[in-house]
Design goal:
Elements: H1 22-36, E1 44-47, E2 52-55, H2 71-79, E3 82-83, H3 107-116, E4 127-128, H4 130-141, H5 156-168, H6 172-190, E5 191-198, E6 203-211, E7 217-226, E8 231-236, E9 251-253, E10 259-261, E11 264-267, E12 277-280, E13 294-298, E14 304-309, E15 315-320, E16 327-332
Parallel strand pairs: 3-4
Antiparallel strand pairs: 1-2, 5-8, 6-7, 6-10, 8-9, 9-10, 11-12, 13-14, 14-15, 15-16
């Protein structure tokens, strides 16, 4: 089963012309993909006529870097998903994390990390963890589809519990396969590396795992935290070129496998097994003139600019350089 790959449209991937050296083509195509890889996590393309997979994030065994699954392998791993408790392994998972530790230092390693989540050892495909799958669906997969993000009553804990119940019911295998595919296509469209997603002293929300004595994950909790250092990792939010997806509260996946959210306020979210109420932050007046002004655009040089109006009226400007991929975040005072 091939679930497809959202290839970057600006990368020019071509096969060899008659008499042209194949290695030369491979080098050129890899260079193109690496150049444009900053526009998204997905960076793979098939060389036409050469039968070779060229990828900015699939390394060979001699590179010294961890291998990640190919597109076809990910499709097979989603199809053959087995729901086991891989996230109970404390040597790879922090106690609060639904995802494993991994290197996320730049765009390339961010790509590799996201794809590694779908390998045969999970946690989102293959020998997967149902709690990891349910948590990513609750924070990213479900909110980015069917208008759930605009629902003021959307409840992250209820969504997590709903997916956990679905996996344990008749047809649970099919539900897990469908969610695996949904998460894969969503992350590969929307995931980008951000070296400064949250600054020191900023309040964000942690999607925290609740564990049993045997370290298996049994619940989902949202915790409001104040950062003691800048947070970096793979940022997942709606992009201007995303296809078939809705806006939702942005999420950051860090090297320690934690997921942080912005724009979400926990309300007594002490246990995923209780009646905790956890919802998206919504203004009291939903009229158009009272909505925060958020603007995302690409300037004439290809740089990505995002302007977010904060609750106090300040403007948070995020600038992504098209040439270097460097992200700069500046906060402009409301009265400036």
């Amino acid at each position: 089963m091939n679930i497809g790959w959202h290839r970057n449209p600006v990368a020019e991937i071509q096969g060899p012309t008659e008499g042209q050296d194949t290695n030369e083509v491979v080098d050129r195509n890899n260079s193109n993909i690496m150049r444009y890889g900053k526009y998204g996590i997905a960076g793979a393309a098939v060389v036409v006529g050469a039968g070779m997979l060229i990828s900015s994030c699939i390394d060979n065994k001699d590179s010294g870097k961890p291998e990640v699954p190919t597109t076809d392998q990910i499709g097979e791993n989603c199809e053959d998903i087995k729901l086991v408790d891989v996230a109970a392994n404390s040597s790879e998972y922090e106690s609060e994390s639904f995802l494993p530790r991994g290197e996320i230092k730049d765009a390339e390693s961010g790509q590799a990390y996201i794809l590694s989540l779908f390998d045969k050892n999970g946690p989102l495909a293959g020998n997967a963890d149902k709690a990891s799958l349910a948590a990513v669906m609750a924070t990213i997969g479900t909110p980015s589809h069917d208008g759930e993000a605009t629902n003021p009553n959307y409840n992250y804990v209820d969504s997590f519990n709903s997916r956990m119940s679905a996996y344990g019911s008749e047809g649970g295998q099919d539900a897990a396969t469908a969610d695996c595919n949904t998460i894969y296509t969503t992350l590969t469209q929307l995931g980008q590396y951000n070296e400064n997603w949250a600054q020191i002293g900023e309040t964000v929300t942690l999607a925290s795992a609740e564990r049993e004595k045997d370290n298996t994950i049994s619940g989902f909790e949202l915790q409001s935290v104040v950062t003691n250092s800048a947070l970096s990792g793979v940022e997942v939010k709606l992009r201007y070129d995303a296809k078939g997806l809705d806006g939702f509260n942005e999420v950051l996946i860090t090297e320690d496998g934690k997921m942080y959210l912005k724009g979400v306020t926990p309300h007594n979210s002490t246990s995923a097994n209780g009646s905790a109420e956890v919802s998206s932050e919504q203004p009291q007046d939903q009229s158009q003139e009272n909505q925060p002004e958020n603007i995302d655009y690409t300037d004439e040089d290809g740089n990505e600019v995002s302007v977010q109006t904060l609750p106090n009226g300040d403007k948070k400007v995020t600038f992504k350089d098209s040439a270097t991929g460097k992200i700069t975040v500046t906060t402009l005072p409301a009265n400036g």
